[in-house]
Design a protein that fits this description.
Helix content is 43%, strand content 18%. It is an alpha/beta fold. Strand 4 and strand 5 form a beta hairpin. The longest helix is centred in the N-terminal third of the chain and has 25 residues. The protein is elongated. GO terms for molecular function: ATP binding; ATP hydrolysis activity.
């Protein structure tokens, strides 16, 4: 009866609403009605029944919502190999969402400058991409079944996988864009964290690697600023042109020839290029190879995003063994006299050329090959044409603009100095390498004393050159 009276009061309140007081009466009547309904339910329906009904209602709406979700399972291994997408997610999640993760593994490795973090635990992590929400979970399962061919065999192996869940309406966006976003972010993280290696063919059979500790950078090497910027621009343009190389049907590689007198900084420039690109360096000693097949095998084992260096190419007798009449083409010809033919079991120029622009060159991507020489005129012209050596970089004797870099590096001098003009004039008249001048600058810590000593040294060299010319 109380409930009926409240309903009647509420009905009459609605029909007579004409002022703020009337609206207040409606609100009071409605609140009283809701309290009475809740009391009636609590009195008439046992607690266990209420709990059962609530759970069914929650399950109903939850099932309807979950039925629109789809999941991707990203296993750690795929057919016995590391799954790169799992590795990418493992780096992506803590790097992008460490603020929302409640459990992270943290460590410090000897060759890493910063702390390293990794996902740990199975709690849900939310990510947002182009206004959609995605859910990540790390799943773990201990398995002793060695018959599982999707992982390496081991005892007590912990199978790990990521579960990526999202609304079914976003299936195409996730597959076509979000996963690509994770992989590209992973590559960027690797480039930032990468410890650059230098590889050498110690025994001519397998590459041996160590850290590239050469500290040279484009900020420290003594090059003319315009020449330095031209090199940087060329490398950056090469990096962003993957699709263009693919479109025109060319292997994604580029060749550089560094030439000039000894001591002009060829090795330092290579190190600076490696640090700028974040590329490993492969120091290829042709004298350690015995045939074209060994060259092919060695180059197949180089990685993408690498620099292959062949130093002093003009001194290698194997690749220079061609007809003295220059009658043959870039590859061995049947029309060349037998006395000029090179045995096919040995390393030949044609074998090297095949790597540079033949079928072998398609064995990897994002490669750079660098030749160095002190005498460009001694190199076979077939090695120098565009497509093989695309950019020729002349590293010459030290001049005024490049000297400013040495003065800044060794003496901490920025801007101008009273002795710079005199030094510039002497450098224009004599031939002296950056290595020789750098050695002179290291002999005194006081900038003024060091520059005066350098002026005296350069004046002596000038007198010597005048005496030799006379």
């Amino acid at each position: 009866m109380v409930l009926g009276a409240s309903l009647g009061s509420l009905s009459s309140s609605f029909t007579g609403v004409r002022s703020a007081t009337s609206w207040f009466e409606v609100y009071a009547a409605f609140s009283t009605l809701m309290m009475l309904i809740r009391t009636a339910i609590n009195d008439m329906i046992p607690a266990q029944v209420r709990s059962f009904l609530l759970s069914k209602l929650k399950g109903f709406f939850s099932d309807r919502q979950n039925s629109r979700l789809v999941s991707l399972h990203i296993n750690e291994f795929w057919d016995g190999q590391n799954n790169q997408l799992f590795q990418a997610a493992q780096e992506y999640l803590p790097a992008k969402m460490s603020h929302s993760y409640k459990s992270l593994k943290v460590g410090k490795l000897s060759k890493h400058k910063n702390l390293v973090v990794a996902v740990d635990g199975s709690q849900e992590v939310l990510d947002h991409f182009q206004n959609i929400q995605l859910s990540w979970n790390l799943l773990k399962e201990t398995s002793n079944n060695d018959s599982d061919h999707h992982r390496p065999k081991s005892i007590g192996y912990e199978k790990r996988s990521f579960k990526l869940s999202f609304h079914e309406n976003h299936r195409d966006l996730v597959m076509n864009q979000y996963i690509s976003h994770i992989l590209s972010t992973y590559e960027e993280l690797l480039a930032e964290q990468k410890s650059i290696k230098i590889h050498s063919l110690g025994d001519g059979r397998c590459w041996q690697k160590s850290d590239l500790t050469h500290p040279a950078s484009f900020d420290s090497i003594a090059l003319d600023p315009d020449q330095k910027q031209a090199i940087i621009d060329d490398m950056d343009r090469f990096l962003r042109r993957k699709e263009l190389y693919k479109k025109v049907g060319k292997p994604w590689k580029r060749g550089y020839l560094l030439y000039g007198p000894p001591g002009t900084g060829k090795s330092s420039l290579i190190a600076a290029m490696a640090h700028h690109l974040k590329f490993d360096v492969y120091d290829l000693e042709l004298s350690s190879l015995y045939s074209n097949s060994s060259l092919k095998r060695a180059l197949r084992e180089t990685s993408n995003r690498s620099i292959v260096v062949i130093e002093d190419i003009d001194c290698n007798k194997e690749v220079l063994a061609r007809s003295s009449t220059n009658a043959c083409s870039d590859s061995d010809s049947d029309h060349v006299p037998k006395s000029f033919k090179v045995k096919t079991t040995r390393l030949t120029l044609s074998g090297l050329l095949n790597y540079m622009d033949g079928l072998w060159s398609s064995g990897g991507e994002e490669r750079i090959i660098i030749f160095t020489t002190n005498h460009r005129e001694r190199i076979d012209p077939a090695l120098l044409r565009p497509g093989r050596m695309d950019m020729h970089i002349h590293l010459s004797f030290l001049k005024g603009k490049a000297f400013r870099v040495l003065a800044s590096n060794y003496l901490g001098l920025e801007g101008d100095h009273p002795l710079f003009q005199q030094i510039d004039g002497l450098l224009e008249k004599i031939q002296v390498t950056p290595a020789v001048v750098a050695e002179q600058l290291m002999r005194n810590e006081d900038p003024q004393v060091s520059l005066k000593a350098l002026v005296k040294f350069l004046q002596t060299k000038d007198k010597e050159s005048i005496f030799l010319d006379s």
